[in-house]
Design brief:
Structural class: alpha/beta
Order of helices and strands: HHEHEEEEEEEHEEEE
Number of helices: 4
Oligomer: single chain
Low-confidence stretches: 15-35
Number of strands: 12
Strand order of the largest sheet: 3-2-1-6-9-11-12
Strand content: 15-25%
Mean pLDDT: 80
Largest sheet: 7 strands, mixed
Radius of gyration: 15 Å
Length: 179
């Protein structure tokens, strides 16, 4: 488990704002729970205006955690192990993808990208439905999202196949899904 000082340095490198304090607060509260985790993290390689997860990927990799990134095949997505930035290759949409082994056990947490989110933790992705299809099968994972406050909108119209995240971290707050 990352120590509080390590979390502070890693979070500061992701977003230079109040999100640092929110994540540290949550990490302090959840510390006993997090020690039970298997140290398997599903993350994403950032594109365009998404919150930059590269410092998180780097920090967890250095700490010896197992990191898996999405790999798109046709209409489906799988996760393959990250083995270093030098081993990533551009995938179907030009997004860097790993070539490591395929995920074969349940992860501790999944970080999901998005274009917009609402107060109920619904999300708008890029329209491919890859995460929704993946989560239709693997829906017991803790689903987190990093977002900038401007990405939080009043309401997102959802369909029955859309999968919400459990929590959203912005520079100003943490939004927890109420069931």
């Amino acid at each position: 488990f990352l120590g509080i000082s390590s979390i502070y340095l890693f979070v500061r490198s992701i977003i230079q704002s109040n999100i640092i304090y929110l994540l540290l607060y949550k990490a302090t509260i959840l510390c006993p729970i997090l020690r039970k985790f298997n140290n398997i993290f599903l993350l994403y390689y950032p594109i365009e205006n998404e919150v930059n997860t590269i410092p998180l990927i780097d920090r967890l990799f250095v700490e010896g955690k197992e990191i898996y990134l999405p790999v798109v095949y046709d209409k489906y997505m799988i996760f393959k192990q990250f083995e270093g930035f030098d081993k990533l290759k551009a995938g179907k949409f030009g997004i860097n993808e790993p070539a490591g082994k395929e995920l074969d056990s349940l992860p501790d947490i999944m970080c999901i990208p998005g274009i917009a989110f609402d107060e109920k933790c619904n999300r708008i992705g890029y329209g491919g439905g890859y995460y929704d299809r993946y989560l239709a099968v693997e829906n017991t994972i803790i689903k987190s999202a990093f977002a900038y406050e401007f990405q939080i909108i009043d309401k997102i119209k959802t369909e029955n196949f859309d999968k919400a995240v459990d929590e959203i971290f912005t520079e100003n707050r943490i939004i927890i899904r109420r069931v």
